[in-house]
Amino acid sequence: IYVQGGMNIEMPDLSSYDLLNARDKLELERIVGLYDDEDDVVNDRALKEKYGQLYSEVLKGVNTHWLSQPVQTGIGQKYNLRLEGGNESFRWGTNISYNSVIGAMKGSERNTFSGTVTLSYSVKNVLFKNQTSIDINKGKESKYGTFSDYAKMNPYYRIKDENGEYIKVYTIKGTKQYNPLYNAQLGVIDEDKYTLITNNFSIEWSINHDLRLRAQLGLQKKNSTSDNYLPADHTTFATATDSDSYFRKGKYTYGTGEDINIDANVTLSYSKIFHEKHQLYAGFDYSIAQKKNHFYTFIVEGFPDGKLDFIGNALQYEKNGVPKGTEELSRRVGFTGNVNYIYNNRYFMDLSFRVDGSSLFGTKNKFAPFWSAGIGWNVHNEKFMQSQNIVNNLRIRGSYGETGSQQFASYQALSTFQSYTGKRYIIWNGAELMGLGNEKLKWQVTKQLNGGVEVGLFDGRLSASFDIYSKKTSNLLSQMDLPLANGFSSYVDNVGEVKNTGYEAMISGYLMRDTHRNIIWSMTAKLAYTKNEITKLSEAIKRQNELYKSKDVEINQLLYEGYAQNSIWAVPSMGIDPSTGYEIFLDKNGNITDKWNPSDKRYFGVDEPKYRGNISTYFAWRDLSVNLSFAYQWGGQQYNETLLNKVEVTNGEIDKNNVDSRVLKKRWQYIGDVKPYKGYGSVETKATSRFVMDDNVFQFQSASVEYRLHSDFLRDKWKVETISIGANMSDIFYISSIKRERGTSYPFARRLALTLSLMF
C-alpha cells in the first residue's frame, strides 16, 4: 500500500515587467504632444482639459498597479493511493489519484481524477495482462480574461468609482477603454471538460525457452466538451445599441467532440545464447494504428438576464451563423524486422529494417522504407584490460539509420471540399474547395550517422561519454505561399534538404562517496552543440524568398542554401541619428541611408543556441537527499519582439495603453540625445539588426529535498515501512542577456510542491 498527499503552490512573479507609473505615463503623453493641437484652438483647449483631469487624478494619488489585480497565490491539492496484491499466477494493482491545480490567475483551476486497474494472469506459458485507466478532467479559465490586457491599462485610471462600483469604461481621453476587472464580476463561464478511457490488452506466449509471441491491442476514447458564456452586460456587447442587437446580447458557445484512437501490434521474437559466447536476438513486428476525431461548435445568443446562464435560455442562434465542425482521420501501418548479435560480451551489432505506410501522404508516396545499423565494442572486456584497475568501463559505438516524420495535419495531401448549402441549383447542393492538397507529398526522411564513446574510471567514481552525429533531412516539409488568386494562401510541400551536425558530452562523478558515514555527493554536467545548414532548396522556395525581399513585408526568417533553417535576416542598422532621432541603415552596397528597404536584409545569426546543457548535483546523508538542477545556453541570437511591442511603439499606442519604462527613459527626445531607441512618431519600426541580440541564459531550474523516516516503532506499531516528506520548487531564478517579459497572456509563476508519502 502506498499513500501520498501534498500541495501544489503557484506563486506569480511580476518582476520581469517594468511599466510606467501614473505620473511618468502622463508625462510621457505630454512630451509626445498628445495634449497639443497648434492648428485647432478649440481642440487644443479640450485636450488641455483632459490633461488637467488626469493630472488631478495623479495628484490625488491614483496609481493603479493593474498587474497585481488578477493574480493570486494558487494553492492546490494532490492525493495518490496505490494498492497491489495477488499470487504467482494472478496479480492485481490499482491506483487512484486526484490532482487540483489552482492557477496564478484568480479563478483559474484544473482538477483531474485518475484511476487505473491492472490485472495479469498467467497460465503455464501464456501471460494475459490488461490495464484500464480513466481520467476525468475539468478546467476553468479565469474570469479575469487575458493577463496582457492588464499590462496595457493606464495607471492613472481608478478601478472603482466614488460609489465603490467597478468602472466599466473610461472615456476621458475620447477613445473608449474597457476595465477588464468589470467583466470579472459578471457570471462569465469558460470551462472545458474531458473524460479519457484507455484500455491496453496484451497476450504473451512463450512458445519455448527461445521463442516468444506477443500481441497487444490498445483502445482510447476521449469525450470533450467546452462551455463559454458571456452575459449581456459584458463589454463585448457594449457597442450593441440598436433594438436588434440589444436582444442578441449575451452569447453561449458550446463545443463537443470525440477522439478515438486504436493501435495494435504483433511481435515474434527469438533469443538464444550459443556456446556461451554467441548471443542472438531476432524480432519481427507488425503494427497498425488509426486516429479519428471530430469536434462540433454551436453558438446561441440573447440572454436577457445575466443569471440565466443555461444554454436553453437563449432567444435564438447566432445571427447569420451556422453550426461548425472539424474532423480528422488518419491510418498507419508498419512492418519492422530487427536483429541483435553479441559476441562474448565484447562486440555487438544491431540491424533493423522498417516499412511504414501512412494515409497522410500522396497516393504514390504512402509507403517508405527505413533501416538502421549499429556496431559496438566493449573494450573493458578484452583480456589486455584485465590487468589494470583504473578503467572499469570503456565502450565504443557507431550507428547509421534512416527515420521518417509526419509533421502536418491529416488532409494536407488531399484536396478537400465542403458542401455549400447557402445556395442551390433547383434541389441540388454544391460544394466548394476547402483545402488545396498536394498528392506528390513525400515522407520527410532523416539519415543519421552517430559515433560515440563512454568510459568509467576508478571503480565508477568518474564516468564520461562523448557522442558526435551528422543528420541529413531530405524532402523537408514546409508551408509554401500561393498567390491569393488560387483561393488559398499556402500549401505544404517538400522544399529541400537540411544538414545537422553536432556533439553531446557528459561527465559525472562522485565528489564524496563515504559508505561508512552514509554520505553521497555526486555531480553531472552535460553540454550539447548543434549546427544547422540548408544544403538544398527547391526553385519555388527560392522565388518565394526573393518575393519577400522585394516587398515591404516583415519576414525575418528566410530560407537560403548554406544558412541555418532558422536564420535571422534584417536590414543592417547604424543606430539612431542624434540630430534627428531617426534610424539610419546600410543598404546592400554598404552605403548609409535613412530609407528602410527589405532588399537590403542580411544574415544576423540563428535563433537557436549553438551550445546548451545542464548541471545537476545530488547530495544524500543518511535519509536526507537534495537534488539541484541548473541549465544554460549560449551562442544563439533572438529577434527581440519586446522592443517593438513595448518600447518602440507608435504615438497611437502610447495614447491608448501603458508602456515599458524605456519608452520614456531611453528613446530620443531632443537634438543631441544619444539614445538606443528612436524618437516618437506614428511610423512603425521595421526589422533591423538593432533588435537582434545574443541570447545567453543561465537558470536555476529546480530544487528538491526529501527526508525518509523509517524505524522499528513505525513498522511494529503502525505497520508503516517508510514515511517520506518532500519539497520541490521549479523556476527558481533566471538570468538572461535579453531583457524580456516572462508571462504575457498568462502570468509567469514559480511552482512549489510539498508531499507526504507513506509506504505500508
Characterization of this structure:
This protein is mainly β. The protein has a domain at 189-233 and 250-331. Helices cover 11% and strands 53% of the residues. It is built from ten helices and 34 strands. The chain has a 22-stranded antiparallel barrel. Helix 1 runs antiparallel to helix 2. The chain is globular. The termini are close together.
* First-last Cα distance: 5 Å
Q: What's the quaternary structure here?
A: single chain
Radius of gyration, taken over Cα atoms and rounded to an integer in Å: 32 Å
Strand content: over 45%
Quick one: overall form?
globular
Task: Summarize this structure as a short list of keywords or feature phrases.
760 residues; mainly beta; three-stranded antiparallel beta sheet; 10 helices; 34 strands
Question: Quick gist of this model?
Answer:
This protein has a domain of 127 residues.
Task: Outline the secondary-structure elements.
Elements: E1 2-12, H1 22-32, H2 41-59, E2 74-86, E3 90-102, E4 109-123, E5 126-140, H3 147-152, E6 169-170, E7 177-178, H4 180-184, E8 189-206, E9 211-230, H5 243-246, E10 251-274, E11 278-301, E12 316-317, E13 324-343, E14 347-358, E15 367-378, E16 391-405, E17 416-425, E18 428-435, E19 444-457, E20 462-474, E21 477-481, E22 490-494, E23 496-514, E24 519-537, H6 539-550, E25 567-570, E26 573-576, E27 583-586, E28 592-593, E29 602-606, E30 611-621, E31 624-639, H7 641-647, H8 651-656, H9 662-665, E32 692-709, H10 712-717, E33 722-736, E34 749-759
Antiparallel strand pairs: 1-2, 1-34, 2-3, 3-4, 4-5, 5-8, 6-7, 8-9, 9-10, 10-11, 11-12, 11-13, 13-14, 14-15, 15-16, 16-19, 17-18, 19-20, 20-23, 21-22, 23-24, 24-30, 25-29, 26-27, 27-28, 30-31, 31-32, 32-33, 33-34
Helix pairs in contact: 1-2
